[in-house]
User: Fold Brix domain-containing protein from Opuntia streptacantha.
Amino acid sequence: MARFRNRKKRKVVVKPVVKNQQQPTVDQVTGKKIPQSFVFSRTKLPSSLRQLEMDLRKLMLPYTALKLKEKKRNNLKDFLNVAGPMGVTHFLILSKTHAAPYLRVAKTPQGPTLTFKIHEYSLAVDIAQSQLRPRCPQDLFKNSPLLVLSGFGTGEEHLILITRMFQHMFPTIDVNTVKLSLCQRIVLLNYNKETKLIDFRHYSIRLQPVGVSRRIRKFVQNHQVPDLRNLQDVSDFVTRAGYGSESEADDEAATVSLASDLGRVNRASTKSAVKLQEIGPRMTLELIKIEEGLCTGQVMFSINGTAGEKKSQDKKNNKEDEDEEEEEEEVEDGEGEADSDDDGEEEDDEEEE
Assistant:
């Protein structure tokens, strides 16, 4: 008779479910909710502007909806109704006309709204193709970027409003308690007083130890055994020809002393060079107008002049028109009186004859 073997029970291995680390919703510095944003379009965009929309979403990570879906029937109220429960505080709206593309930055739910004209723009793909060694690590977009504003300290009201709007779009940081490992990106806005244009740039931050060649730096970071077959000594690997060309020139103005360790190469109390590499997108903006409400309301600023100046100019023009009409009426009345006097004199002459 056949024997039945006792089969051993196989152990079932259950892999633990790793939950995604949720981003904090409350700012530790101010105690308020961290600002979040929606990036979408209001008109049908060409492929290049559609890619610019995706680049702006990546720029606003991690506090934005990267896979936000839009439909033709959606209007602004639909986005506003969803923004409230999700804690969205800002809208970045792209649109396209026959003249030029536009970018509107609005504060929900009651405004104000800044309308910018996009004179020039470059996509992140174009910038990466123009670089010899493009840099975009995976964890680059895990934390929000730092904001740097330049040239906005003139004291003009519309520039102050632009400064406050962009400052409230990103989480605030405390210089004394912030971790250096969280500072990996920078958003730079530079205002040109002469042309009145705003240069919008997006950079990644990279630190390099001063006085260390690129070969040694890669060896420490990657932990890969170098190829020493053609060398007689380890010192030849360090002092190999081309050491000076591989080590980048260190500018004293761009070097900092780290307060804590950052990675395997950059150590505390040592000098490191700060390198900025553009990752895009790149835009050249011009402020067209500022509206008091959410894409509606009174115009607080216009490129042709403020609302108050426009009203005064309209009043002046109306007064000038009224004065001209009064002068014309006076001239007509004077001509009528002169004609009546001439008729009376002719009648008197006829009676005398």
Helices lie at 47-59, 76-86, 124-130, 157-167, 214-222, 234-238, 243-246, 307-352.
